[in-house]
Amino acid sequence: MVTRPPREDAPQDSPRVSAPSSSAAGNPAVGSIVREVVGKLGVTRSLTLLHANQKDGFDCPGCAWPEGEHRHTLEFCENGVKAIAEEATPRRVDRAFFATHSVAELGERSDHWLGQQGRLTEPMLLREGAAHYEPVGWDEAYDVLADELRAMGSPDEAVFYTSGRTSNEAAFLYQLLARLLGTNNLPDCSNMCHESSGTALGQTIGIGKGTVSLEDVHTADLIVVCGQNPGTNHPRMLTALEKAKRAGARIIAVNPLPEAGLLGFANPQRPGSYVGRSTPIADRFLQIRLGGDQALFAAAGRLLLEAEDAQPGTVLDHDFVSGLTEGFWEYAAHVRGIDPAEVERATGLSWTEIEVFAEEVRTAGSVIVCWAMGITQHRDAVATIREFVNLLLLQGNIGRRGAGLCPVRGHSNVQGDRTMGISERMPDGWLDGLGAEFGFDPPRAHGYDTVEAIRAMRDGRVRVFMGMGGNFVRATPDSDVTEAALRRTALTVQVSTKLNRSHTVTGRRALILPALGRTERDRTGGREQVVSVEDSMSAVHASRGRRRPASEHLRSEVDIVAGLGERLGLGAVDWAAMRSDYARIRTSIERVVPGFDDYERRLAAPGGFVLPNGPRDTRRFDTASGKAHFSVNPVRVLEVPAGRLLLQTVRSHDQFNTTVYGLDDRSRGIMGGRRVVFVNPDDLSDLGIADGDYVDLVSEWSDGERRAPHFRVVAYPTARGCAAAYFPETNVLVPLDSVAEESNTPTSKAVVVRLEPEHAGT
Ligand code: SF4
User: Fold this and answer.
1) Per-residue pLDDT for 4 more than 70?
2) Gap between the Cα atoms of 398 and 389, Å rounded
3) Residue 572 — very low, low, confident or very high, per pLDDT cuts 50/70/90?
4) H-type helices in 266-401, by residue range?
5) What is the C-alpha to C-alpha distance for residues 544 and 494, in angstroms, rounded to an integer?
6) Which helix (H) or strand (E) holds 96?
7) CATH no. of 645-759
8) Which of 278, 351, 427, 701 has the lowest CB atom count within 10 Å?
9) Spatial distance between the Cα atoms of 42 and 33, rounded to a whole number of angstroms
10) Whole-angstrom distance, CA of residue 397 vs CA of residue 416
């Protein structure tokens, strides 16, 4: 029986704690899927799942893990089902809902409660000084937005934010609109996730993307998984790791947390999993200290050089290094000089563990390094990823079978959006192409990324904030600062499918523009429209919604952007034609974006096509020198004052980015609550705090303290000195100015905190 949305919020966050899981998926995952199907979808709606990730179906709106050539009948994971159930839910947030609930009251509700209310059904406007949103027609909505944009003194008073769910076609039109307006203020969720990867890879190998295919993962000798929790965040990656293991691969997990999906995988597609059989995943688990990965890889580089010294010609790929790279000697001189004691302090690992790791790398015929936010959200994230590149270059582990770099993207089309020009700093060549296609000179001054956009709003320099999907206020750091910044704008506009907190933190006026979901049929312009997305491995494929839209008032993201472009009368662009036939948008993409030749025909092919990738395809490196770059990255220990811990913000298992599907995190043994902090038992005894105590988390930064109250302490086998707690609840602790060097990504994986027992000092 499909349940109604929760009326009341859970009274008090009161988590129940048990032992963490030692493997991912299995019967618990199947049980969770059944609950989603029965509890949220019902039988008929759950048939939607049969189209998920199928070649003629829709792309799962969850993560960006690729599909293989062969598709199972049930080609989705537990978290994919949750993401789809959120879109296909029969629950509705309509004008009656907004008449009942004021913005202020909604602002007091939990993220989970807001997300469980259902699908938005029509455009809503919050007038200046009003307490409730009220329904408006699309025309009035466009007028409000267009008038506010026209009232700007400069195009840079507008910010156009993009979440990673936006399709290629909508993203391309969105960036075109912003640039025709005259601004490059195009922050996106990539700023908070793989910006550090794009920066480091662009510098060293000439492309800001990974260099492996799914086939490479299946055939690698050694896969090193760093700072990633695939069991929750990219669940079908476990299928690929299992396949690799069955083909003889070894897997090393490098993580402060012994995540269930790194230890074992009970694949529901295998009958054995129903009797509790699971495949061990990691052959080695290196419980590294937060921020220690760079030192680990630098040390491994040193050890490989020493092994080469001992047996010349047996370790390094000399032809590759001398023919296709530069900077080797500077790098070699640097890593030969690093101090093992400092490496041990930085990593929390013993030199012996590091020697064993290096030996695994030395003896593997092909090596892949995978990573996610546990790497990218650190001060030295860019240097760390450059160190990954260094280690792989030594043995030519790029551009050959079973080897390469694999940043695993968290949102279904976050890579595609960047490819479509969603960035505050696109290269001049790319902008030249855009200008030639549409007959204008795009702005060249770099715009705001996410952190800069928040600063600009905080300082009153932004009049209009527009969010294409996502939940900006919950995805960003320094929540109190970000909320106050958004409230300084004249107008906030959220293009959304469901209710979330960003609808409760508004400018003087606010608009909600309800969009079609990925699962829904798009008949914009009176024809069946297809959109396209790009996964983590640069494969572009079509996505066709199959469900009847949740409301007749919904519009596609393409339609919304084209409608605004038309209303503003922007440029020599035939917005109506673009809207009525998305193939027209793709024709322009083909002429502007490299690699999209013959776009329409290749997109129509089952499974789509793979974009060119110089390092992967031909070992071509589009750097200034045409070679891959070794780099010198000083090892730096993340210093933590006595009595403090390094906190990382993480997702629970019942969560996708800022969307909270439920209050459980069974993989870590947490049920019915989210305000928990995981701390090593030895750290607890040093701090004189006990499992089950309640504390406030207080972060300390040069501009003062930030507090997140009332967290239940959970004694947990995390690395010494390293704690973990869920975001978005702990984003308030991450200072806006605490960012990764070069990429400006918030350092959400390394926040210095103290645990203040509740009632301390009362
Ligand atoms: S692995 Fe990611 S893309 Fe695939 S079904 Fe699961 S959530 Fe969706």
Assistant:
1) no
2) 9
3) confident
4) 293-310, 318-324, 328-336, 340-347, 351-363, 373-376, 381-394
5) 24
6) helix 95-100
7) 2.40.40.20
8) 427
9) 12
10) 25
Identify the three-state secondary structure at position 520: strand
DSSP 675: -
Distance of CA 290 from the midpoint of ligand 1 (Å):
27
For atom 1 of ligand 1, the residue with the nearest CA is: 236
pTM for this one? 0.97
**What is the whole-number distance in angstroms between the Cα of residue 71 and the centre of ligand 1?**
13
Instruction: Out of 3.40.228.10, 3.40.640.10, 3.30.470.20, 3.40.50.720, select the CATH number for domain 195-408.
Output: 3.40.228.10
* Ligand 1 close to Cβ of residue 236 (< 6 A): yes
Residue 693 has which token pair? 């105590």
What are the boundaries of each domain within the chain?
16-88, 143-193+415-616, 195-408, 645-759
H or E segment to which residue 660 belongs: strand 659-660
625: left (phi over 0), alpha (psi -120 to 50) or beta: alpha
Q: Do residues 434 and 184 make contact, with C-beta atoms less than 8 angstroms apart? A: no
Using CA atoms, how far apart are residues 229 and 367, in angstroms rounded to an integer? 19
Q: How confident is the model over 684-717, as pLDDT tens digits? A: 999 999 999 999 999 999 999 999 999 999 999 9
Of 687, 410, 294, 733, nearest to 749 (Cα)? Answer: 733
Q: Given pLDDT bands bounded at 50, 70 and 90, which one contains residue 274?
A: confident
CA 408–ligand 1 middle distance (angstroms):
12
Whether the Cβ atoms of residue 83 and residue 656 lie closer than 8 Å to each other = yes
Indicate whether residue 233 lines ligand 1 (CB < 6 A): no
Sequence-separated (6 or more) residues with CB below 8 Å from residue 167 = 413, 416, 531, 532, 533, 543, 557, 558
- Among the atoms of ligand 1, which is closest to the Cα of residue 59? 3
Atom of ligand 1 nearest to the CA of 67: 4
Residue from 54, 65, 73 to probe ligand 1 pocket by mutation (most atoms less than 8 Å from CB): 65
Calculate the CA dihedral of residues 187, 625, 327, 286 and round it to 10 degrees.
40
Angle, helix 428-438 to helix 168-181, in steps of 10 degrees: 90
Residue 12 confidence (pLDDT): 57
| Residue 672 CA, ligand 1 centroid: distance in Å | 24
First to last CA, the chain: 48
Rounded distance between C-alpha atoms, residue 91 and residue 671, angstroms? 24
**DSSP code for 555:** B
- Per CATH, which fold does 143-193+415-616 belong to? Rossmann fold (3.40.50)
The secondary structure element, H or E, covering residue 405 is strand 404-407
Cβ of 713 closer than 6 Å to ligand 1, yes or no, is no
| CA 516, chain centre distance (Å) | 21
Instruction: Look at ligand 1, atom 2, and give the residue with the nearest C-alpha.
Output: 63
Contact 508, 491 (CB under 8 A): yes
Edge-to-edge strand list for the sheet holding 158-162 = 134-135, 124-126, 509-514, 491-496, 464-468, 158-162
**Greatest CA separation found in the chain?**
76
Dist CA 111 CA 70 (whole Å) = 37
Bridge pairing between strands 694-701 and 751-757:
antiparallel
| Residues paired with 496 in a beta bridge | 514
Q: What is the pLDDT of residues 532-571, one digit of tens each?
A: 999 999 999 999 999 999 999 999 999 999 999 999 999 8
- Which atom in ligand 1 lies closest to the alpha carbon of residue 234? 1
Concatenating the DSSP letter of every residue in 29-60 gives HHHHHHHHIIIIIHHHHHGGGGGBT-TTSB--
